[in-house]
Amino acid sequence: MHDNTVDRTTDGTGRLCDLTFEEIRKLNPAANHRLRNDFPDEKIPTLREAVTESLNHNLTIFFDVKGHANKATDALKKIYMEFPQLYNSSMVCSFLPEVIYKMRQTDQNVVTALTHRPWSLSHMADGKPRYDSFWRQSIFVVLDILLDWSMHNILWYLCGVSAFLMQKDYISPHYLKKWSAKGIQVVGWTVNTFDEKRYYESHLGSSYVTDSLLEDCAPHL
User: Fold this and answer.
1) Which of 50, 64, 73, 182 is the most exposed place for a label (fewest CB within 10 A)?
2) Digit-coded pLDDT (tens) for 18-38
3) Would you give the distance in Å from CA 102 to the centre of its chain?
């Protein structure tokens, strides 16, 4: 699940942490999707079911880990042992350096990436401040500056990543060149419109994450 709640991505409501797996299993993850009429009876899969389906379609998997480093890496280690082809067709990525560091400690053969959006601690995706308090907001702005510097200068090396997933609006030819000199592949997210895709493919020559390769989707912040 992507969010802390199930409201946006399913036909259910409530916090994810308050629901049992049996309750989550009953939700329809296609309910709010633009293709919901084509997939009216979808069910939320287990990790193993999702991996099996993706491998059957020769898809590249990005395991986007939101937290719980120890539990997540233990679960992923078991999946990689059961499906060794994942070593050549998947990547473990996270905003949290501790997750990637733990994953590399658990299995050095797993391809990993750090995910980053500048100012994510102090601002929402639409640019609005996260906090009403001036001092609290100011503290998180400073923390954002430190995090951004650490990501680009220290953490990528300490975590042993092969790629860096960066919010699409911050990627430029110069940015790609800096990472290329370090041997790191940059992947932009989430590139949805036709113009953005054309820019990434023809001008930047960079990989990107998108909601659809076939359609011109709604812009993603």
Assistant:
1) 182
2) 999 999 999 999 888 888 888
3) 17
